[in-house]
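Regression check, pyridoxal-5'-phosphate case 450:
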Amino acid sequence: EEVVENNNEGFLPKLPPFDYSPPPYTGPSAAEILAKRKTYLSPSLLHFYNKPLNIVDGKMQYLFDESGRRYLDAFGGIATVCCGHCHPDVVKSITNQINRIQHTTVVYLNHAIADFAEALTSKMPGNLKVVFFTNSGTEANELAMMIARLYTGCNDIISLRNAYHGNAAGTMGATAQCNWKFNVVQTGVHHALNPDPYRGVFGSDGEKYAKDVQDLIDFGTSGHVAGFISEAIQGVGGIIELAPNYLPAVYASIKKAGGLCIADEVQSGFGRTGSHFWGFETQGVVPDIVTMAKGIGNGIPLGAVVTTPEVAEVLTRRSYFNTFGGNPVCTAAGLAVLKVIEKEKLQSNAFVVGSHLKERLTALKDKYEIIGDVRGRGMMLGVELVSDRQLKTPAKAETLRVMEQMKELGVLIGKGGFHGNVFRITPPLCFTKDDADYLVDAMDYTLSKM
Ligand code: PLP
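Current build output:
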């Protein structure tokens, strides 16, 4: 049976050719899965699209639904799949490892965890040489915040409004959007003004926003703090790149107050920004602690905290461990990911293709009033829709309509931001120029019909 890839008659471009056909799918239908999900899974879980997709296969930058229909994946499993879905080198590394040993515990030695820690620290600046593996970004940030508190003997942490750092008790405190917070105890975090060039009160003046952090230290704490945590480009918050010169000024204030600077690289790490391997490097700072997850394992559950030997010493006060953190199968995946990023020059591809994509999206902004802002870098791009450019009124319903229509054209994008009116474009880093062109053509066509 012929697979229909493009069911929109007025739209002429075709998805770039791709030499892969998934095996036939004989499992349950989308409707059956949805019914089970409603009965057996947490009601907090949301799905995209009126008719949710049943994704049964993935290969590089493409996903396939139950009928074998191919979609360009421009969300990348929420900025997670960096090498491409089921990249053969990553699959091979996982398979080789899983055929030998699935799990050990920290009380025995295994080379996979040590090899990956060594490789990972070779990508870090300064003296960031000690790794603690976790299973997620939340856990990594929980640990980073605890380390900062132990090291400094202080409790106060400063985070940014609109940040997303996780969903456990401590990290939910650092997360700063009511959409993602429950009303349970989350103490010790102060939220500074967000250095958001589009919606923030000081526009792109990073140093003015940094003054707010100094004010928080002076007027909201004892003058001493445990630390500061931020993303370099807020992901869940709607792809907001911190205003230039912000982090150097803030890091100086935090250091003066005795605190540690934590860079949350869960989304922006592993070459996604194109210009740099780590997002914090775009602002020329060196953190005391770096947290990561998502891209680190290309979708395999893995996270990490990297810090200096001096700071890591605080963990020796207890036998501090994590049952699954550094599981050999996950760290084997991580090692393969680093090799693929290097071998396939994925960071440089993120830069070249991402710049082209951003240029073309920016041109769409000139064509359509509804596009209020195009931002981000590399393969971490945002397009914000507004119904009034002056007032920046969020166009939430239109955002959903465009996403639905683009799905019909075979393109999957994400959405986010406080108002849910920002497209999040975070594809696997193997995305090609033809893919980028198809995405923009599909968005152009969709906006032209609204
Ligand atoms: N930090 C950032 C920047 C994130 O985007 C996320 C998740 O989206 C997290 C932390 C939490 O990671 P996880 O969902 O793996 O716990």
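Comparison notes: The chain has a mean pLDDT of 96. The pocket of pyridoxal-5'-phosphate is lined by residues 78, 136-138, 141, 164-166, 231, 235-236, 264, 266-267, 293 (CB under 6 Å). No diff flagged against the previous build.
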